[in-house]
Amino acid sequence: MNQTTSTTAGAARSSMKKVQGMIQVALFGAIIVIMAFTPFLGYIPLGFTRATIIHIPVILGSLLLGPKKGAALGAIFGLTSLINNTMNPTVTSFVFTPFYSLGEVSGGIGSLIICFVPRILVGILPYYVYRLFEKSRKKTGVSAAGLIASGVCGALVNTLLVMNLIFVFFRDAYAAANNVAESAVYSFILSVIGINGVPEAIVAGVLTLCIGKVLMRKNIRARLGVSK
User: What is the pLDDT of residue 14?
Assistant: First the structure.
């Protein structure tokens, strides 16, 4: 009888934990969706591309909830990019969605890889970067350096992978869409990384530090139902 009761209680706790985890992912996912579909908030059009700060809740979700849930949040980020570039395209949206064409150029499997793989990694790598900094510290508490490094890492993973995968899959079409000579397309990509990616990384580092210092506190994590 006692064993049966214990088994039932354990199953109930496990079920409760799963529901709690789903709620946590849904909460961060809702923030991502709101940012993505609020004009000039999540995706900021720059003509040749879009700047974004949607990686911030993905990074914070990774730090709080762990890499598995962070990967799910990254996938949501990728899905919003796919939808945005399909429904509200720019001249280079074909690199993010197989459902948009520019003249004879259309997206394909490469578009899906570009859209999802870097964003999923944004939800995974910052967690391990922060843990690395946390383990190297002698004192307990929130690691400010770890938060900054995690934010910068998440932003750079997104920008560097996206832009380099564009070069791998769509270099000629991307050059044509931006009126750039094919021989100069990687130089153009590097300029986008500098103009777009570096400021995004700085902003990500600052915001992850400011918001993370609050969210990573033990009492706040407990209120959110997040264990260490």
Answer: 73
Residue 12 inside a domain? The answer is: no
Structural domain count, the chain: 1
**Is the distance from CB of 207 to CB of 151 less than 8 angstroms?**
yes
Instruction: Give tens-digit pLDDT for 44-63.
Output: 766 556 678 899 999 999 99
Residue 119 forms part of a structural domain: yes
> Closest Cα partner for 52 from 69, 68, 72, 74?
74
Residues 6 or more apart whose CB falls under 8 angstroms from that of 191 comprise none
CATH number at residue 123: 1.10.1760.20
Question: For the segment 164-213, what is each residue's pLDDT rounded down to a tens digit?
Answer: 999 999 999 999 988 999 899 999 999 999 988 998 999 999 999 999 99
The answer to whether residue 177 is domain-embedded is yes
pLDDT per residue as tens digits for the range 74-98: 999 999 999 999 998 888 999 999 9
The answer to whether residue 64 is domain-embedded is: yes
Predicted model pTM: 0.89
Tell me which residue range forms the domain holding 130: 18-223
